[in-house]
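Researcher: Structure for this, please.
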Amino acid sequence: MSLYLGVMSREGRGHRGGLLFGLGILSFVLGFVMVPLGVVPWILGWRDLRAMNTGDVDPSGRKMTQFGTMFGIAGTIVALVTAVAALAVRESS
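Model: Predicted structure, token format:
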């Protein structure tokens, strides 16, 4: 048994599904303000999903980890599009 971010698991370290889901939602909602926030759930989500496939992480949080990763990717895209649009508007004025 291991303790990882407060989640107990017999199969390895606990999942970070809730944390990644929360960060993913925040990055999507606040992506235009906090640009690098979307990268965090994106990278950590891929690492956890890979570890779930090998059995190193508790797989019970797979769906939340997947959704958090997807929201992180979407938040990163929103941040990049917002940054490009802001630069385009700035250059045109």
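Researcher: Any notable elements?
Model: The chain has one domain: 2-92. The beta strands are 2-4, 7-9.
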